[in-house]
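Render this sequence as a predicted structure.
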Amino acid sequence: MIPKFTIIIPSYNASKYIRESLESAIAQTYPNKEIIVVDNESTDDSLTQIRDIQEKHPHIQVSSAKNLYKYSWQEPVEKGLSMMTGQFFTILAADDILDTSYVTNCVDFMEANNCEAMQSPLYMFRDKEGNVIKVDSILSHKYHGLEDFKRTLTNYCCVTTPSVVYKSSVIKDYEFSMKSEEYLGSSDYYLYCSLADQGMYVTSCEEFLGYFYRTHKDQNTNGMLQSNGFQIDESIRAKFRGKWE
């Protein structure tokens, strides 16, 4: 039987992009998928757009979560995880888009390599009024095995978070905690270090599989970096460098 694949889309004030992002999830050619959209107390018309799309595609599940942590998607992701029934899952940012074969490519890679989690390169692009105008660059990371993953993490976050795909068994087999109350928008960095500390790593696929990462002035990454993001990242590095070295 073909395993089910869950796409979780956390959405906060993504009215400019959510329709395109959600439609790219719907358009996946993979035959056994579920789509869960969780609104994070948006103050724009994001949720209205999501509901409009749900009317045409009633299989989409829509929920909401409190907005507790600045620059973090922990709350909607945790809600989505509590709802999912797939054997694999990924978290699609509400301002990004997927190639139609993305999910199929990811499942094929994970099954061929028997990995618990994986990441693949991102095409980073800028846009104007929702239209792609230029592919700027491709972002990818290379390391080999758990120890190399840990060494790299003590220097920088070597995971392109939006492209990570997990087996759902990771949730029960490991402590899957983001701790946004301490690490805000760097909670994903903390998660990868925590998983590595427990003996699990995110396998790096060097081939582009179809994830398009949109860059724009309003994205959370920019806000985090302009606040105290660098200091938080360094505190995470120091914590695990002390344990691993």
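Summary. Residues 222-226 have pLDDT under 50 and may be disordered. The radius of gyration is 17 Å.
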